[in-house]
Amino acid sequence: MARQLIFQIDKEYPFSVTKLDRDKLYGWKEVVAFDSEGRECVRVDIDTTGSFIIPKGGKALGVLDKQGNWVERKELKAVHKDGTPAEPIPSSFDQPTKLEKTVTVEEFLDHCITAVYILQVGFMGEGLLEQVKSSGQIYTFTFNYRAGYEGSPAFLVESEDNLFMLVGYPVAFEFIGLEQVAEFSVEDEEEAEEEELDFSMM
After folding, report:
1. CATH class of 1-24+82-197
2. Which residues contact 176 (CB under 8 A, 6 or more apart)?
3. pTM for the model
4. Strands 162-170 and 53-54, sheet pairing
5. For the segment 159-172, what is each residue's pLDDT rounded down to a tens digit?
6. Is residue 167 within 8 Å of residue 152, measured between CB atoms?
7. Where are the domains of the chain?
8. 131: which residues sit within 8 A by CB, 6+ positions away?
């Protein structure tokens, strides 16, 4: 059985989720290269000296300490900026998600959406669908696909009797404006160009 998200508002509403992506919506195509004998070509890497061929899967990120010693990932500990230990956040699939906060359309649009999920609305989820649809509210919560130390802002949006969960991150927009409009003079510009001319080049 697929993992379910359980939203909690007046009661609990379970949903199965399916991630939407361009491949599922529009299909995809792949380009495969073959050599002169019909064998499929496989991409590999070459080290900086050009002496060694590194096959696919032969590279990975490693972690070194200040002395250059290899550190196993299980030995790493997450901390906050002040050095205090960071507490892991469980996966959203492991516990009910309370719908307590809403945002305005403007606040929602201040986020860059990186993933879209459609919620499979069964008979047990119709109540939440109707609440979101009738209220016109955009519910927000923190979403963690898997357990980790940092969640992502997520939003529940209704469209054509379907519930969608949009996940993203906030974008800091800066307003740029002019307090005073500068005057532009063609004569001043021409004078500046004449001053910069070097007649010795002619």
Report:
1. mainly beta
2. none
3. 0.66
4. unpaired
5. 888 899 999 999 98
6. yes
7. 1-24+82-197
8. 9, 10
